[in-house]
Design goal:
single chain, 1 helix, 129 residues, mainly beta, Hypothetical Protein Tm1070, Chain: A, 9 strands, five-stranded antiparallel β-sheet
């Protein structure tokens, strides 16, 4: 009887500690047809209380991968490990981001465009859902 209780308790512990499936967050496409300067990058933010892994990918308008990086992100930190890519007035300019993260509830994925390094500059941020 005691062995059965131990096995049942162990089963509940194992069921309670299964990992949740990863979430994929996508930003809306950035309309960059007439953009000839500036750069864009993908950012991932961990709003949870524990460190987690994320895969961040930046695409052009046709869906071709321009940059991709896997990274560990500390709690309450925004990571920018994916390279900033310049706009070159071609179809290869950055258009949107995809982030594979542990939880859609506590993580964010952003596409960030900056037109120049000097001030004043225009900064556009598109959040992923």
């Amino acid at each position: 009887m005691a062995a059965r209780k131990i096995l049942m308790a162990l089963a509940f512990v194992l069921i309670g500690h299964t990992t949740a499936p990863a979430a994929t967050l996508l930003t809306s496409p950035f309309d960059s047809v007439e953009i000839t300067r500036g750069f864009a990058r993908c950012l991932v933010t961990n709003g949870s209380a524990k460190q987690g892994g994320a895969r961040v990918t930046e695409f052009d308008a046709s869906g071709r991968v321009l940059a991709s990086e896997s990274t560990l992100v500390r709690p309450h930190v925004t990571d920018n490990s994916v390279a900033a890519l310049a706009f070159n007035n071609t179809a290869e300019s950055p258009a949107y981001c995809e982030c594979t993260v542990p939880s859609a509830a506590t993580w964010r994925c952003s596409f960030v465009y900056v037109d120049q390094f000097e001030t004043p500059s225009v900064i556009s941020i598109i959040e992923g859902r």
